Amino acid sequence: MSSLPPFSGDEPTCAKCGWTGASTEYLPMGDCVHSPGDRGVTLGWAANERLHRECQRCRYAWDEAIVEPGLPCADPEPDGVLHAQRRHPDWEYATTEGPRKRWDGIDVPPCDDNGDPDPTWERNLDAGHPGEGWERFDYTEESYWRRPKRPGTSPAERPTRPVHADGTPYRYAEIVAEGWSCCDACHRWGRTWTPEQPHICPNEPKAATS
C-alpha cells in the first residue's frame, strides 16, 4: 500500500505559489528527485512507483500515488460547469454585445466570414442567466454562444502552460512564436484572444445589474 497522496488530477493547485496545473511523469521505485534539470537534488529512495508532479510556474515538485486499476483518476467536471465558465475543451465560445434594454439582436448568432449570422452557433444556456444564456450590465447586454470545435482545430485556450507531446513545457521563444499569452487573474493560456473575441476570465466577473 502506497503512503503517497492520491493523484490530484490534471489541474492541482501548487502548495507553494498557488498555480493551477502541473506536469506528470511516471517513475518506478528508486531515487526521488525534486528539482529540474542539472540542479536536481536527490532526496532519498522511494519504495513505490509514483507520479512525479511539477508546478509549471515555480517548478516546485512532489510525488503522488499511481491510479489503481479500475479507479478513475478524478471526477470530471460536469459539462454545465465547463460551459458556464466557457472552457469545455471540445467546444468554442463567442459573445455578442448590444446596448442595455435596447438591443434587437440579442438572439442573432455571431456572424460568419461573410458577415451573415452563422447558424452553427447555438445559445450557451449555461452561461449568464441560467437557462437563458445572456447577462445584463450597467450599459450593455451580452449574449453567449457555443459550438463544437471543428475537426482539425488546434486548441486555442488551455488551463496550463503549453506543453509538447512528450509533456515538456514550451520555452519562452516557443510561447512567443505561437502567440500564447497568460491571464494574470485565472492563469489560463490562450493564443486567439482578440478585442473581438476576448478572453472571458472567471476570476474577474462584471458587476451585473437587474
Structural account:
- This protein has 210 residues and is mainly β.
- The protein folds into three domains: 76 residues, no CATH class; 77 residues, no CATH class; 51 residues, no CATH class.
- 6% of the residues lie in helices and 26% in strands.
- The radius of gyration is 21 Å and the shape is elongated.
| pLDDT averaged residue by residue | 76
Q: What string, H for helix and E for strand, traces the elements in order?
A: EEEEEHEEEEEHEE
Question: Total number of β-strand segments?
Answer: 12
Low-confidence stretches: 36-42
For the sheet with most strands, the description reads: 4 strands, antiparallel
Q: How would the global form be characterised?
A: elongated
Q: Which structural class do you get from the secondary structure elements?
A: mainly beta
How many separate domains?
A: 3
Proportion of helical residues: under 10%
Topology:
Layout lengths: L21 E6 L2 E4 L8 E5 L3 E6 L5 E4 L14 H6 L6 E9 L22 E2 L10 E3 L3 E9 L8 E2 L13 H6 L3 E2 L6 E2 L20
Antiparallel strand pairs: 1-4, 2-3, 4-5, 6-9, 7-9, 8-9, 10-12, 11-12
What's a quick, concise take on this entry?
With 210 residues, the protein is mainly beta. It has helices at 79-84, 172-177, and strands spanning 22-27, 30-33, 42-46, 50-55, 61-64, 91-99, 122-123, 134-136, 140-148, 157-158, 181-182, 189-190.
